[in-house]
Design a protein that fits this description.
globular; 216 residues; NAD(P)-bd_dom_sf; Rossmann fold; alpha/beta; NAD(P)-bd_dom; NAD(P)H-binding
Length: 216
């Protein structure tokens, strides 16, 4: 299975591409914005597509023409304003969903936010609410498609080394989780069709990732 990783140069994305390239059932195609970001992925043996997520749907669809699945790990980041949250976390996500349809790619995995319910929007701090809103509507857009989707809702992300130990279910208690372990969850989700049509929250716990995915 060939996988287009959108947001590959991000902190989760780099882990995802690295793990995919270590798995003999998967191969990665890294979608990045700048040519100077390419060497990291080429050194891993991954294909590279230089595409700006703020560009046209057709450009993203072209990058997806030779893949079997899409993983959306892109994010505007905490230091950008509401405009970038809108353009990347909402519009960027929707454009990749539409690109998947154009390229006839059925499998799609979305990295969302821990809680994107209407209640979460209402209770979010003012500075964080636009991000939750963007993720809420991106998730809704994906649910309304006929794509074979999985929506992953991670807890508070850290750069700690992954433990390969998670708590994973439709609802889990709030907590932290290393980005490396979210990348492991993505890869196992790609390998297990039982995750199709599912969404779940993930935090650090006591169950190996593969076992947690198989329990869904």
């Amino acid at each position: 299975m060939k996988v287009l990783v959108i947001g590959a140069n991000g902190q989760i994305g780099k882990h995802v591409v690295s793990l995919i390239q270590k798995n003999d059932k998967l191969e990665a195609k890294a979608m990045i914005r700048k040519e100077e970001q390419a060497d990291f992925f080429k050194d891993l043996g991954a294909d590279v597509a230089i595409v700006d997520l703020e560009g046209e749907i057709e450009e993203i669809a072209k990058a997806a023409e030779d893949v079997d699945a899409i993983v959306f790990t892109a994010g505007s980041g905490p230091k950008t304003g509401k405009d970038k949250t809108l353009m990347i976390d909402l519009d960027g996500a929707v454009k990749t969903i539409e690109a998947a349809k154009q390229a006839n790619v059925k499998r799609y995995i979305m990295i969302s936010s821990y809680d994107t319910t209407r209640e979460a929007i209402q209770s979010a701090p003012e500075s964080f609410a636009p991000y939750v809103v963007a993720k809420h509507y991106a998730d809704e857009w994906l649910r309304d498609t006929d794509l074979d989707y999985t929506i992953i809702h991670p807890g508070a992300l850290t750069n700690d080394p992954g433990k390969n130990q998670v708590a994973l279910a439709e609802k889990v208690e709030r907590g932290e989780v290393p980005r490396e372990d979210i990348a492991r969850v993505i890869v196992e989700s790609l390998l297990h069709d039982s995750t199709i049509g599912k969404e779940f929250q993930v935090v650090t716990g006591n169950t190996p990732v593969e076992e947690a995915i198989q329990s869904l």
